[in-house]
């Protein structure tokens, strides 16, 4: 019985330095340094709208995250041709509901 990494009970665990290296080598925008920027960038990628990523980053900073998450979930569940357009419509609808309350 040798010291086999595959039979280790911690097979799925990584050290912190491994995670940092993996994150550093990932295909992400190198100018992202804040959480809201990362969220906006990931949202743009998820909605297949990389051309407008700065808009999503600004929305992640200024719009309530609860509204953005509800709209994102709505778009994921829908079968839309334009995910970005549907997302913007849903955000506008949700913001209108919040203002009327």
From TrEMBL:
<protein>
    <submittedName>
        <fullName>Uncharacterized protein</fullName>
    </submittedName>
</protein>
């Amino acid at each position: 019985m040798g010291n086999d990494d595959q039979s280790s009970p911690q097979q799925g665990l990584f050290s912190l330095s491994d995670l940092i290296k993996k994150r550093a080598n990932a295909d992400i925008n190198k100018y992202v340094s804040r959480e809201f920027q990362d969220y906006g960038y990931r949202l743009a990628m998820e909605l297949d709208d990389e051309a407008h990523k700065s808009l999503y980053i600004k929305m992640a900073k200024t719009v309530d995250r609860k509204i953005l998450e509800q709209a994102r979930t709505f778009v994921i569940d829908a079968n839309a041709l334009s995910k970005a357009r549907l997302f913007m419509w849903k955000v506008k609808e949700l913001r209108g509901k919040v203002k009327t309350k």
